[in-house]
Amino acid sequence: MQISTITLITSLLLSINSVVALDVSKKENDGVHVIKWKISHAPKEYFEHTANEFKKRIEERTEGRVRVEIESELFDKVNHDFQAQVDAVRSNKIQVSQVYLSQLYDVQPDFKVLNLPFIFKNNLHVDKVVDGVIGKKLLANMKDDQIEGMSYTYSGGFINVVSIEPLKTVEDFHKLAYRSFSGEISSLAQSAMKTNFTNEYIKNRNGTYDYMTIDKMLEKGLITAGDATSNDARWATNIPKNNQAKFLTKTEHFVLFTTLIINKKFMAGLSLKDREIVRTTAKEVSKIERDYVVRDGLKAERQLAKAGVIVSSFPIKERVKLKKIMIKEIYPKVESQVSEGLIIDVRDAYSPKIYKPKLITEN
After folding, report:
1. Backbone torsions φ then ψ of 147, nearest 5 degrees
2. Between helices 123-130 and 272-306, what is the axis angle to 10°?
3. Which residues lie closer than 8 Å to 309 by C-beta, 6 or more apart?
4. How many CB atoms lie within 10 A of CB 298?
5. Beta-carbon neighbour count of residue 341 at 10 Å?
6. How far is CA 206 from CA 209, 267, 312, in A?
7. Tell me: the pLDDT tens digits for 217-258?
8. What are 133-184's pLDDT values in tens digits?
């Protein structure tokens, strides 16, 4: 009887200690919010750089109230289902990621304007728009109950052309088997350029699609040229010589944007102070990334030239011709789908004194 009583008391004491321990643990974890950031797509090194800087600043500024966990393994490195990445943020499976602007056209059609060819003059023009009133308004007016857009990043910045043969005139585009990026604006651009184009998804006989990077498509002889960031050009020139891209022509015909998104439910669970910290930090690291991408692009061009790749600007006369073709063919189609006057506002944000025609097609 005495042994049973002692055993019972001991069990009760152990139970109490366990409950106390659990309660202490719970209190220690109270107020700690974890942001899971999963890298969406290549170039992984750019996004890792951004994510790590975000983590460092967030954890310091919130004094541990918000923790950031980064998963560098690409979300879907086989099929590259970029839309699944957006859905993962919507469902709060992950809280933050960078996604292509084109993946958000359904909730913010005005993003199409930022992807228009020749809408931006240079990187300073980009900064003026995306960090200014226009960029903030576009993010604030996203019609999505589950995700919030916080800032704009580059997925390589200005787009040029890598090719096996030299590209000297607009007519040279007509002879190319060309890989463009997927998306409505890219397809319109390739139609205007009259290339024989495909995007990064190759359809199989069974109806499924395989994702292929530009270097793989060149290596298999599926294309002779393609849209490329400077980082892409590194891949395209580092393959067997028969199909190796030997030319990087700086057309700078459009900018490849990504945007930093976060789950709204997660944000609602943060204090007002921490929400502001997250939003401010997102903008800061996005600007850091854009600057980093620009510097890396210049570095890539020097490396390519040293390796024997011909790096050159598209002749000014031909670039003007290409710009006129794209504006005439593409802008009117997009103008009817976006907010009135937005195209002109974006185009003129950097140089407000230039003449504003009534119609885009008057350019």
Report:
1. -125, 150
2. 170
3. 233, 237, 245, 246, 247, 248
4. 10
5. 10
6. 9, 42, 41
7. 888 888 899 998 887 788 777 777 767 889 999 999 999 898
8. 999 999 999 999 999 999 999 877 899 999 999 999 999 999 899 888 877 8
